[in-house]
Amino acid sequence: MLSLQNMEFTASQIASFIDGKIIGDDNALITGVSPIESGETGHLSFIAQERFSHYLDTSNCSVLIVSENILTKNNYTQTIISVKDAYLSFQVLMNLYQEMQGRKEGVEDGASIHDTAVVGDKAYVGAFTYVSEKAKIGEGSQIYPQVYIGKGVKIGKNCKIDSGARIYDYCIIGDNCIIHSNTVIGGDGFGFQPTADGFKKIPQLGNVIIEDDVEIGSNCSIDRATIGSTIIGKGTKIDNLIQIAHNVKIGQNNVIASQTGIAGSTIIGDWNQIGGQVGIVGHIKIGNQVKIQAQSGVTSNVNDRETLYGSPAISYNDYLRSYVHFRNLPELVKRINNLENNSKDHTNE
Amino acid sequence: MLSLQNMEFTASQIASFIDGKIIGDDNALITGVSPIESGETGHLSFIAQERFSHYLDTSNCSVLIVSENILTKNNYTQTIISVKDAYLSFQVLMNLYQEMQGRKEGVEDGASIHDTAVVGDKAYVGAFTYVSEKAKIGEGSQIYPQVYIGKGVKIGKNCKIDSGARIYDYCIIGDNCIIHSNTVIGGDGFGFQPTADGFKKIPQLGNVIIEDDVEIGSNCSIDRATIGSTIIGKGTKIDNLIQIAHNVKIGQNNVIASQTGIAGSTIIGDWNQIGGQVGIVGHIKIGNQVKIQAQSGVTSNVNDRETLYGSPAISYNDYLRSYVHFRNLPELVKRINNLENNSKDHTNE
Amino acid sequence: MLSLQNMEFTASQIASFIDGKIIGDDNALITGVSPIESGETGHLSFIAQERFSHYLDTSNCSVLIVSENILTKNNYTQTIISVKDAYLSFQVLMNLYQEMQGRKEGVEDGASIHDTAVVGDKAYVGAFTYVSEKAKIGEGSQIYPQVYIGKGVKIGKNCKIDSGARIYDYCIIGDNCIIHSNTVIGGDGFGFQPTADGFKKIPQLGNVIIEDDVEIGSNCSIDRATIGSTIIGKGTKIDNLIQIAHNVKIGQNNVIASQTGIAGSTIIGDWNQIGGQVGIVGHIKIGNQVKIQAQSGVTSNVNDRETLYGSPAISYNDYLRSYVHFRNLPELVKRINNLENNSKDHTNE
Prior knowledge:
Udp-n-acetylmuramoylalanyl-d-glutamate--2,6- Diaminopimelate Ligase, Chain: A, domain 1, lipid a biosynthesis (chains A, B, C), UDP-3-O-[(3R)-3-hydroxyacyl]-glucosamine N-acyltransferase activity (chains A, B, C), UDP N-Acetylglucosamine Acyltransferase, domain 1, Trimer_LpxA-like_sf (chains A, B, C), transferase (chains A, B, C), 4 helices
């Protein structure tokens, strides 16, 4: 299994990053990272929980970061880096590693940048990326190749916009945002007036505002408002293949799983957890700290801290209770048949 | 809230476009448009219904287009443009505004156009767009940057093909069509023959035909036919993230909401309304003026004017009626238990 | 109906490819292919089943490939090519035709290929495609225009990567794979740690491994593993708009229909058939030869050869049996009401 390629560290270098104590070979060389259940020679992994302690002495990994309370011996097959909390230390390490990967700077040959566009200090713009008039790219932001940036778009500092993302005219993206490949920000909302001859397009002249610290996965569609703005609030995280319709307002620190769709003008509060393949109708309000189970269909307002399931969605517990009986309906029908037969017997008595 | 940036009109200019009467300052300057519930200084909005009349005198907007029957005074805080139907006038204005945005013309530096391709008069082809041999782009059509156009593709007049759309070999697009970013027209249909060694690809050698006045949202996948054509009929409007499989035929003036999928060879009539996240199986026929509720799963033929819900989908009213009892199943089961206990009592008498 | 444009063959050429006998005009000219139910003059079609035999003498096609057991006369309106199995012969012909379409070779003007990248013999790299450092493209592979290939990516032999596909750093693709337009391989998995201040990104440092003979449709999102690899096994076929989350492992020869989503770390065996719009939760195991009905929500482990339906998914037959009663719930409730009324009558006796 290949991962974290091209790294090369010694156990003692790793230990110094996370303030760990080495048991074994200071110079053990690490060239990659494996999950503990499929460790490879030359790789690093970690053990943070007692229930994985059987991998001590048995994993093929050369170096293991281990929580100190799990360690019972002075000597293991692998080189051990003993730390207080192995999970935390491993995260610190991975973050460090990612930062070391380096950022690019400057405008690559073959990018097309309008004369009136502004590219900030230490920003990167990749080849075949198109930046339209009066667009503004903030300091340190990384715009990968083949991105489309429309007129008057503003992108904040330290963003990462992946290859093939499209950001249409006048949309605004805050600082520290990540937008993955092939996501479309600011496509027209789906609005038509029916006439006898067919549907007449209603102009979609608003924009999309994405606040700071938002991450949006790949292949998402976030439509511009008819007038005003579609808004994704600070710190909200959106998975892949998600539909956000025109004039939707999403608050802060929401987590929305893959393939979910939110219809027009719906308003969503803060700290909600929305599962995958959920559908939410238009023009409703969802409060805060709500949990919506995967595949649910939400058709009316939702109060704070509710947990929902089903289509149309009802309380999670009620849905599961009813579903138990749903599965048992053939049996219930037999019981009703019996009761009716008995009742007839009585009547015939 | 930012919207309709960079416009700059006076109240009297606006009034002249829509034949309105001004109450207030002819020279009031408009630099943007807001929804009435979040108006901003210097912005234009409209009031078409009595229930929004409390925004008269209270909205921060500088100019309001108002239906004349709502007006009761000779003087308001804002400059008023009085018209017969404010909603209609506002739409007229937005359409005008969009048209004034201007179209581009000519082939941008960095586009790759095959010698045998034909680009019509007043058409625009953006940078990094690839036009293959014998492709034909009609008069006035706007092909944005980074689009892929395959061999022998024909695109009609006055179309707009957004950045990142892919139109594969021999597909045909009519006049006045809009295809949004990252939509794929003419990818291979999903057809394989099972063999003992695995699945063998069945060549997908047909195409996709998109008739006039069709709009297709972003990130859609519309597959080419195995042989013959996948067809999207005149005036049909398709939202984002939608799957149309090989050999599907869709009629005229349908509206299909986001994330719906239609499986292979299904035939759909005219004027149907299909909700979001609907699944329709392959090889069935759906009539005309059918309504399919969001998240439904349609598994058999549908007659004209039916309304459906559920998975598998049944009549909308029947589904809702049954769902009320579904929610109440725990209570029903208690009642059955009681009846059985009573019945035993009788038996034991 | 337009299809298979620009071909031009005589009946005798076609017959020689598939070892058929001609009844009629050896020199009948074919310029396209039609489905039998919408045949056109000058086109070829086929009849492999008795139930389509009424198209003999009535189809507008000029040449028909027909299974010999269906033929009863020595003379038909159309030129007939008689073969043992018309369906098989037609497939052979379509495969031949597709191969004749030709492959491109070489690097097109305007592609951006890093000095350290390696492009194999007879491979094609289209304009505006970006190939990053140390990437490797195998012999004969066709990389269409506007593709993004990240650092250290390895693509095997004879692959086809369609326009707009994105393959992120260190992902590995085997031989004979097809990846359709705008699919994203190796985007970050959706992993965050909740903190009081918001969600903190967990670095996603693994990759995606796609084994030989895999086909992946358009607009799919296949996320890289957190550490280790997300794996798509040999011969598996994936339709459009599908989500595969981080650390999922899919075995060999699976068929997964459009708009299905598989959540993180789930493990799927071999030869499974997964319908469209299915949701599969994370961290479960699905065996082999399982069939999952469209729109199902799978929430727990699945044994070999099970067939599932519903959300949450249960046995297909059980779901349908219960659903019959679900549709009938209003009637069942009436029967319970009656029983209760009768029971009261008895009690009141």
